[in-house]
Write a structure and sequence with these properties.
heterodimer; A: mainly alpha; 81% helix; B: alpha/beta; four-stranded antiparallel beta sheet; 24% strand; globular
């Protein structure tokens, strides 16, 4: 646990020792309300809720979370510091977990920057605050899933741009899987059971349930499972490097 | 303290390390020599637990570097080739990270940190971002991280590469200072370093050990009393045999 704390601390500091954290937080603080106001037509809906924000958050997270995760292993490999890390007496779960939790903390801070909108809807009307809270919880889990996927793909390359492109592609794939046009297209090409299985993998459908104020245990397990599986994949990919291409 | 037992490592069809065996006791400083691509770094990476041998066993203080990696690495200080470090960190925070990852906290952490920074003679640069430091200071920062936890075994891959003569003297003095109580391997292309710091010299070429003895015994192999000639004769004979084959 000491090792996990050390890696977490280093990673979190590393975000703030470069402009990365500041740029990320500034872009998020500007883009999330911008989506809600201009695309989601926040005021035109005449409803006291944050649906315009939550509806567009996944599309923002698809871009920003892989941007946050791309450096996690690709940068270590590129700079040679992976060898320093691998020579430390720390288990791989600690370095993988520490890196993930640091990025997730930054994602949570970014989500917290949209809280003024929550305060605003309370000022303007009487929203269902419990539903908004579950919406935030869903967004937090979705951000975690995207970050973990991004980290796993970052472990496949020493090039951060490649890691970003792969991460964004993977996040798109698990998000789009639940959209009706994908489902119907799959329905034409594949058997119904396969199409349903792929739709079941969709992060978007499960995320939307949180936005409606519904917390289903299976949805929470889905997101936590996706995070755990992606981090395990990252750890396996890094552990493989000890084999030296054996 | 350190054992390499019939280590073999292949990369594709290329055999980088071919049946390398040796052991090192506390108090010994081994100069690990060889031409580029001879297998020095691969051997050291296997001993450091960064790379698993295909065949053979590497162990540190009785702990297998693969099966009991964490215990082996807790007794080891390793300076990888090129002395990599995190450019945005200061040497102080870099060394502190290594110590925290090793479980150091509180007063123990503070005293180990101060001792390492002092031993590596980092001075005021300890609080500057590593990216802004000269090559010599970057190397010292990585060296400080390698020695901070006072390990029993030190593996230093080209610790004096890129340092000016004064800095080289400083690192050599530090190695000699630590040599009494540790088993140390240093790889180097600076042959003068071997008689100055090492109690033992080993030459590896084409993945195999070509010489293992004292620096004096190695010098005698050259015929003209210089270590450079000895190195050339011990490594070029391999190349000539390979060319003939």
């Amino acid at each position: 646990m000491q090792a996990l704390k050390a890696v977490y601390r280093r990673e979190l500091l590393a975000y703030f020792q470069t402009p990365l954290a500041y740029v990320f937080l500034a872009v998020f603080a500007f883009a999330a309300p911008a989506f809600a106001f201009y695309v989601g037509r926040f005021f035109d809906t005449n409803r006291a809720d944050l649906a315009p924000l939550f509806d567009y958050l996944p599309w923002l997270l698809i871009i920003l979370m892989p941007a946050l995760a791309m450096r996690s292993w690709a940068e270590e490999r590129d700079r040679g510091t992976l060898e320093f890390l691998m020579a430390l007496p720390i288990p791989l779960w600690a370095s993988t977990g520490g890196k993930f939790l640091a990025a997730w903390t930054l994602a949570a801070a970014a989500l917290a920057l949209t809280f003024p909108m929550w305060i605003a809807v309370n000022y303007l009307g009487s929203p269902d605050n419990a539903a908004i809270a579950t919406g935030y919880f869903g967004a937090f889990l979705l951000a975690g899933a995207y970050l973990a996927l991004g980290q796993a793909l970052s472990a496949t390359t020493s090039n951060q741009v490649v890691a970003f492109v792969l991460g964004t592609g993977a996040c798109f794939a698990i998000t789009l899987a639940g959209l009706p046009f994908v489902f119907s297209a799959l329905g034409d090409a594949a058997s119904a059971s396969i199409a349903e299985f792929i739709a079941d993998l969709s992060a978007l459908e499960r995320y939307n349930a949180f936005g409606r104020g519904v917390i289903e245990l299976r949805d929470v397990i889905y997101f936590l499972g996706l995070i755990a599986a992606s981090l395990a994949a990252a750890a396996v990919l890094i552990a493989e490097r000890r084999g030296g291409g054996r | 303290m350190l054992v390499a037992d019939h280590l073999i490592k292949d990369f594709g069809t290329h055999r980088a390390v071919d049946d390398v065996s040796f052991s090192l006791k506390s108090g010994e400083v081994l100069g690990f020599l060889g031409p580029n691509g001879a297998g020095k770094t691969t051997t050291m990476r296997m001993l450091a637990g960064c790379l698993e041998p295909d065949i053979g066993i590497a162990s540190i203080a009785g702990h297998n570097c693969v099966q009991d990696r964490l215990a082996a690495q807790s007794r080891l200080g390793y300076l990888p080739e090129g002395a990599p470090s995190y450019p945005a960190m200061t040497p102080r925070s870099f060394v502190e990270f290594g110590l925290r990852a090793r479980g150091f906290t509180g007063q123990l952490l503070a005293s180990a940190l101060e001792t390492a920074l002092e031993r590596a003679r980092l001075g005021d640069t300890a609080r500057q971002p590593i990216a802004t430091l000269s090559k010599g200071y970057k190397r010292r920062a990585a060296l400080a991280a390698a020695i901070a936890h006072d390990p029993d075994v030190l593996i230093l891959d080209e610790p004096t590469d890129g340092l000016d003569p004064n800095q080289k003297d400083g690192v050599r003095a530090l190695i000699l200072e630590m040599a009494q109580t540790k088993a140390i391997i240093i790889s180097t292309h600076i042959l003068d370093e071997v008689p100055a710091v090492c109690s033992r010299a080993m030459i590896i070429d084409a993945g195999r050990i070509r010489f293992d003895g004292t620096p004096d015994q190695m010098i005698r192999k050259g015929g003209d009393g210089t270590i450079e000639t000895a190195f050339r004769s011990l490594t070029q004979s391999v190349k000539a045999a390979e060319d003939a084959a």
